[in-house]
Amino acid sequence: MPNLKPVIGATEGIAPYLKKGHLVILESTVNPGVSESIVLPILEEKSGLKGGVDFYLAHCPERINPGDKKWNVENINRVVGSFENVGLGMAAAFYESILTGSVKKMESLKEAEAVKVVENSFRDINIAFVNELARSFTKLDIDVVNVIDGAATKPFAFMAHYPGCGVGGHCIPVDPYYLIEYAKENGFNHDFLSLARRINTDMPAFTVEQLQDALNKKQLPLNGTEIAVLGVAYKANIDDCRESPSFEIIRILKEKGAKLRIYDPYVSHKSTVHSLEEALRDAKAVVIATPHDEFKKMTSQELVNYGVEVVMDGRNCLEKVLFNDPLLYIGIGR
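Above: the chain sequence. Below: its structure as tokens.
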């Protein structure tokens, strides 16, 4: 279940200051039912006021895409929900006054809470699907990226998602558990969501397995080999490393005895070297865990000059055809 302490703390903090006519909006991602079963009772108890009569409560789940230059807080569409119509109208009017995106009114607080969980579970499930394809196609000697690109030429009923070394961030690898646990408490098991979580959680281990196989082909052991791990952030060109699969990749590599040089230009406090050059110098293998622009600019000749023999592209962000002998290039499913 989610850690509701911040939500509870904030609710308890504002409750004594509530006055008649006030509107309270919760934006935190929560499992369905939290607004009515936790937030509302606290507000009523500590304010002495009645929700829906003296004050109003609404939920508008946050939508943000870090690093996205097109979609931002102002222009992303939003949804709002409440447990009565006055608060719903107030919340919708508030967001319509500050956003250029549209605002959809949901029929209940639970519906609004469920929207965010469904959005991120949708992403998690589709990523799990292509991650499983990647593992299968590795055995079948099929390039999964080319296949997905081919499928994406269909102009309807297909949405391209791509495999990678794991799923990170504060939403996608976390939010499905909100629904999984809440549904379990109410007598339903989300087998599909649980399976997707397991598949995506296993991808760092699969990435290390692929790297180890590639090193073996070069007659190099994983134990004792100098390896550059490039990227700690969960997403390209940002410094957010919450739930990043990089940490699990690093943990497994250390457990197997690899000598690591960790570099992320956006997360210096988690890096063990200060530059890409320092990370690559004399490294026998490179693991790209985050597709930062700086890493995507690396060339085959540059890596060879540094002594690199194996490239494990955990984000399929390099042009595979440009990385030939003597380099051994391995992607996720390619």
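The radius of gyration is 23 Å.
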